[in-house]
Amino acid sequence: MRWLACAGVLLAFCVSWTASAQQASSPPAPDVRAAGPVIDMDAVVVSGAQPGPGLWRVSRDGHTLYILGTQSPMPKRMTWLSQDVEQVIAASQEAIKPPRVKVDADIGIIRGALLIPSMLKARRNPDDRTLREVLPPDLYARWQVLKARYLGRDRGVEKWRPIFAARELYEAGLKQAGLVESGIVSPVVDQAIKRHKLKVTTPQLSFKVEQPRQALKEFAGAQLDDSACFRATLDRLENDLPLMTARANAWAIGDIPALRALPYGDQNRTCAQVLTETEFARKRGIANVAVALQGEWLKAAEDALRTNASTFATLPISELLRNDGLLAKLQAKGYEIEAPE
């Protein structure tokens, strides 16, 4: 599971989820119903070899930054035709990865393994309360419908904190819809970068977790007001799965106008806010992560544009489609921006 893979410490999950959710912020999502029946998946997920979108180009004084906009989720059964992107990578001197948060817990493999029981406990509700006990009745009733559809009779999840139960449900919903969050584009890009021996720059913020066992204990006892995150995730699964499929299909065939026109919902922003507003997060400096990451990426991009004839980068396509996003900030500094058709 995703949270268990984050540096062996639950806090790493909290920070990385916060960063990725805020980086991918997009135009406001459409209103969704607070309750109602689950919408059946009518849209067919594309499969087979697909070209994906063209590249954005940022240029000045003969120096060019090519940016591939990435999409999540993606069609599970598609193969990305990456020849055009690989040609750009081959002709470039540097690759800029998406900005990220790095969490250093200063633990080895053995010590990390010993912390697993603490991590498993930290995802549960304090006092082993169940979702029925901590959620409003209307919200729990909606959960039961979606849980039956996507998770079956899994009883263990009933004692999880709403924010973690919501994540488990969301991943199961994507799987059933034939969508995946990653694994289509990044492996191909990483292999091409390695093959052509590009310099790799990863804009990042680093956090040091002192006494990880104590941090997990503190988190396990902390109260989280995460019903809003839970509600937003249910809304997304009840109403947005067809739109997620449409966006995934539009990316696969390179239909930029469709991606611009389709509304975008993202419950992760709500869930990230739950985590960053806790005293647990504030004590560890987890605040204004998105703004700081933007600054780190812009610095890396401008450095590359001064130094290299050609640079390659990837960013969430939702960021590239924003009217006030990173491209707008570069344009305001005098760079020429050319979007794919």
Can you walk me through this structure?
This protein is 48% helix and 14% strand. The chain has 341 residues and is an alpha/beta fold. A hairpin with a 2-residue loop joins strand 2 and strand 3 (63-70). Helix 1 (10-23) crosses helix 13 (267-276) and helix 1 packs across helix 15 (289-307). The longest helix is centred in the C-terminal third of the chain and has 19 residues, at 289-307. The radius of gyration is 21 Å and the shape is globular. Mean pLDDT is 80; it is low at 1-42 and 107-120.
Offer a quick outline of the entry.
With 341 residues, the protein is an alpha/beta fold. The chain is built from 17 helices and twelve strands. The protein is globular and about 60 Å long.
Name the features.
single chain; 341 residues; disordered N terminus; alpha/beta
Shape: globular
Q: Average pLDDT across residues?
A: 80
Number of alpha- plus pi-helical segments: 17
Structural class, from helix and strand content? alpha/beta
Series of H and E elements: HEEEEEHEEHHHHHEHEEHHHHHHHEHHE
What is the C-alpha radius of gyration, as a whole number of Å? 21 Å
- Could you list the spans in which at least 5 consecutive residues all have pLDDT below 50? 1-42, 107-120
Biggest sheet: strand arrangement:
9-6-11-3-2-12
Total DSSP E strands: 12
Largest sheet: 6 strands, mixed
